[in-house]
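Dear support,

Our group has been running a series of protein-ligand predictions, and this particular one with flavin mononucleotide is the one our PI (initials K.S.) wants archived with full inputs and outputs. We had some confusion internally about which version of the output was final, so please treat the block below as the authoritative record. The input we submitted was:
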Amino acid sequence: MKTAIVSYSFTGRNDRVAEIISEKLQIEHIKITEKKQRTIMTAAWDVMLGRKPKVAPSPDVIDQYDLVIFMSPVWMGTAASPLHRYLIRVKKTKKDYAYIALSGGGTEKNPTLKKNVMQWAKHEPKAFLDMHVSDLFSDKEISNDEIQRYQMAEEEYLVFADRAITEIEKIL
Ligand SMILES: Cc1cc2nc3c(=O)[nH]c(=O)nc-3n(C[C@H](O)[C@H](O)[C@H](O)COP(=O)(O)O)c2cc1C
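Confirmed final output from the archive:
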């Protein structure tokens, strides 16, 4: 089965986890980039206005794969906007896909995330996982801002990558 992991990252976490997964599972890694400079403000506005920002490579790059594993941050309860054109491509091609997030998971635990992803893709992901950076601080209160600014250690990336791999291996 031809499989790829496709990641988008604003502050680098999801790209790093995806990179580790691609190395460990020996699958291709495609990083989504944006034409326009991203800011926290435009991230929030894109979600609120339901925008679909322009991305590279073109989403039809996924057509050649049997299974596509997407990774992205969660923005305001939904998959980061740069994923939206890809999820629409998933809908159009009825492609098998999985969705994995390394989100903040602070005050909100993203209860409608899967439903929001499916609003774009229109069919169920083969696997779905929302991992929270806040899990690293389960013994103390931490604000969303602190979670956002936290510099993750390489061992922590590896722990999240292994959690994701456990789910991915069930569908390979
Ligand atoms: C505008 C914005 C909104 C966010 N909203 C949420 C949210 O609703 N739920 C959540 O768990 N994390 C939220 N986060 C935190 C990110 O999902 C989290 O920091 C993630 O690990 C960043 O991944 P990245 O480094 O790959 O960009 C938000 C971050 C930004 C910038």
